[in-house]
Amino acid sequence: MSGSDTDAPRLVLHVGPAKTATSFIQGAFVANRTELAAAGVWYPEVFTIPLYDAHHALTAGLDVFGVPVPPSHRVDAAAELRRLDHHPAPTVVLSAESMSTFRAAQWAELLEPIERRQPEVVVFLRRWSESLPSRWHQLVRRRDAPPLFTYLEEQTAPPSTHLPLLDRLCEAVGIDQLSIIRLDRDAGGPDPFAQLCSSVLGVDPPGLRPERNQQLNEALPIAATEVLRLIHLRSGGRLVDAHRQFIGTRQRGGTNAVAKVEALAAERLHAAPTRRVDWLDEASAAADAEVVERYGHRIVNPDPSGLLFRPVGDAVAEDRAMPDADLANDTDVARAVDRLILRFRVRQQVRLVRGR
Question: Which phi and psi angles does 320 have, rounded to 5°?
Fold first, then answer.
């Protein structure tokens, strides 16, 4: 880095992780770029790629699982980071959830161009009983997921925790550079973008405009996600655009093929035994207590109870009851999914022939 440390803007890295409102936050940064720039906060365009508001090109060369970056949008990340050291804005924000998966070597490579100063890192934590079903959906999109309750049991025996992520971030940048924001939808309060702006960036959040690209990242009902999982399973994972076709067809509504298969799956799941998922909170309670003990002073919006997340009430827990079923063993659903796969393959071939 050329120049003194005080010449360079403050660098804030929003690392996610995935399924903690990252797309919402990134979309809000882009939609409000002009207002934020006027307040002294710059969200660069240089690392973004078509259809996404995250800085995926920043981490493209660091051997992490992420969104493929088109050749036309690949950049020399080290050179661009050095160039940002001379940006006139007091604060520069970079956002990519793939940074939450970094190991020590990847952090070292990313931070090497700015080795004379440590960036600040912002991480969001979400209640496990909310995040695990969302993470299951994310795995389904990537064509590598077991049935829902198999996944939940794998993640809670022993309990998955926030600690490994926080420990890696602390090792990379130091605990004093870490800001933790609790994403607790049961507690109310400001939305995550407003919380980040006011608590970390020190600016009044501008009025939010509608974000972009919400459709492909929206939460799906369990029945729809199970159908998508079965499409990947029964096609051998070779229907590469299955997720895009599935979401696009589903959004068109009406009595289309996707709606019929989803309705059948919902009917079978509704008839299956259900299990409450408040045990997810119980399984993570001890680990959450350790997070508060070790990192509580870095939480910018602590809960008055002193807990990382309060236990949910019985009514909320009952609403989170989920069907315990694997529809891969349902002959009728399997046949319906096979017909949907055939339909998607025909569409895929038509697009190839048309050069789309």
Answer: -90, 10
